[in-house]
Fold these 4 entries.
Entry 1:
Amino acid sequence: MSPQLSPFDHNDAADAVFDATGIAARAKRVGDLAPDATLPDGLGQPVRLSDVWRKGPLVLVFYRGGWCGYCSLQLRAWHQRADDLARLGATLLAISPQTPDRSMRTAEDNQLSFTVLSDSNLEAANGFELAFTLPPELVSFYGSVGTDIPVLNGNGLWVLPVPATYVIDEEGRIRFAHIEEDIRKRAEPADVLRVIEGLVRGRALAAPGGG
């Protein structure tokens, strides 16, 4: 059974909403330096993004929340690639504006093997220029189906990130960026993993005696 879509999650309406945000022009892209942020995990423990990417390639997945069926499908797909990430020495962090306890619930409900972070104050979403205020039509729809985003996110705001996937190298440079206005589509893990494999090969060649 497909996740429930709002009338604005279909192509034409979704495109119109996305275009109105201006995110397509301003969101962080390949070649940009990634903005740093310190966010709590599901247990409330702080995680600094730069501390993670300095240890190896970092995959950042911005998702709307555990209430979003397509987001859950994406997170479960990444869970299935946990061994591939470990083999490449990469780390995945999933970020949503949900409160830490709701982030923990998302991880538990989907049996995720990676860390889920809470961005209730929108530090990361704003840093990557992904945050947008929902138009009145979407506020009305989500309110009518009981998805009270200001409460779920604990910040009183009808603000969400556009779903996005990034790969950040050890120097904090963005090496892959996928920003998607169509909520039904996401970056394929296989495509992201190929980028990381290229980073790993390049690092090995650059090392002394690396050929």
Note: The mean pLDDT is 89.
Entry 2:
Amino acid sequence: MSIEQATGDDLRKSVRPATLKDAADIAYIHETVFHALFGASHPLVPSYEQLHAQWEQTLTQEAPDGCYTLVAIHGFRIVGFASCVPAQEIHENTVGTGKHLSIPQGTEIVNLWVERAFQRSGHGSRLLAALVDVTQAKALRVWVNADDESYIRFLRSAGFGPAGIRRAFSVNDSGDQQFVEHLWWALNT
């Protein structure tokens, strides 16, 4: 398809490396994710100002080897972002099966978020594909909220599967409320 034949929608969606000027947009999206997970008034939820300062610091510094932050663009607007770090090999006995699991070293996706209004329009898939391209990792992994069915469906459609490993965080002072995440992973073949 030539550039003249491309539809306006084809030209409006892309992924690129994040820059310092993207910190405000990334912080806004990150804040909405925290609000969706924990609620806006939860004491663990950082403020927009804190997130903005954190992302400014991250995007100002030279990224360590294997660390990337990418943004999804729709038109001229940032509508999603992804970040990743190198991950060491994992050897674990999986929960409840007694089986031993070995996941090769690769890349851990720390963030992969798209604004709700722009979900299901290919931005998550483009971000994931770009992470695969820039990292060239043998394996990808991501921790997923156990209750996030939409994200789990997305990961499953992208070839990820559950590793059988979970982690839990206390989300209140008494420790009786837990936020549970499961590890999902895929081999890059």
Note: Residues 1-7 have pLDDT under 50 and may be disordered.
Entry 3:
Amino acid sequence: MAFSADELRVLRRALAIALHPMPLSDEDVQDCLRLAGSVDEAVGEAGRLRAFLLADLARYRAALPGSVTGYLELLQDALAAGYDPRPDDLAALRALRGKPLAAALLERCQILAERSVRARLAGRSAATSAPGPRSRLLALPGGRAADREPDRPKAPAAPAPVPGRSPAPGSRPAPKPSEVFPPRRPSPPPAEEERAAG
């Protein structure tokens, strides 16, 4: 996960505040909430990417032996992302053992599968998957929250648009596909005068 310069500045400030508690300005609170939202969005996107990768891997595995190269590349990517090889993967790699890359991946997958089985027998999870969604951030006792009555947090107000600047990327809804790619309309037939007479 990569952070922009602004996100790193906010993260550094939030960590400093966590280590040395002090009153926060409203702007600092909003920055921290935006950063938490960005991190939540990145975690969700990582989960969607992982699901897509695993579905793609299953499609390539089902299309074997014609999709050997793509399957081996996807399996390497999935293993790098913490994928726990399944019996179907081991069976497919055994069938492809004649290729050097498949043989190396088979050896690696057998080691990972053995670790996974041993861990399951020991009663713990073998591979750590992406963490689940975080709970909402709540204010700690003391600070600004102590002055107010306990109520639902208000939605952050959108900042006033600055003339000359384009709106923030998330401030308007995403366009529909029909707006981006309008339907093709057949061109009208040429007029009688334009037709060539033979």
Note: The mean pLDDT is 75.
Entry 4:
Amino acid sequence: MPVSNWLNWFKQRSMVVRKVVTVEARQLFRLDNEVLAFRFTATMSDRASAAPRERLSDHGRLKLWLHAAGFGVPDVSPAELQDALDLREAIYRAGLAVTVTQRPDPGDAAILNGAAAAGQPRPALENGLAVWHLSEEAPVPDALGVLAANAIHVLGGPDRGRIKACEGPGCAGLFLDTSRGANRRWCSMNTCGNRVKKARLANK
């Protein structure tokens, strides 16, 4: 098949997706985590508080988050929403285990491995930017496969000893401490870090 015909076929069989970060997405989600998989786990916020907040309360919100993350899926089914929530919680539990130098539970590892294997996304470099091609047949499993693969890379990679849980009040969000002294305490200085500093100033 000529190259030009192959490219046309490929474009017809896949969807090119790029980040679409709307005002609504910025208001609903924490999008500042450097690790994609941990940004996903942050869709359940205030995990260590008395009332954790579920931000993926319906399939529309998952679609919105996926668009903001660079996965422009056309729609999300109820079953796909549940698969996403199951994957998210498996990533979080596995991450917490790593923060205390324990191995992730085999069941959680199986969920990550299964999602990573099921997805068929294709990375591409277009106009100097990295994008994902998702299949028309299963775009949501493809996107979840990318999230699972990212989690596997971080949780099992050489920097896994730098994975931490945020010490901000009620947070416990996962993050990768890339500071030179490995002394970072908060998932984000702009949110949890500022809250702690403001609380200290108020108590003086």
Note: The helical segments are 3-13, 23-28, 36-41, 59-68, 78-99, 106-118, 139-155, 189-203.
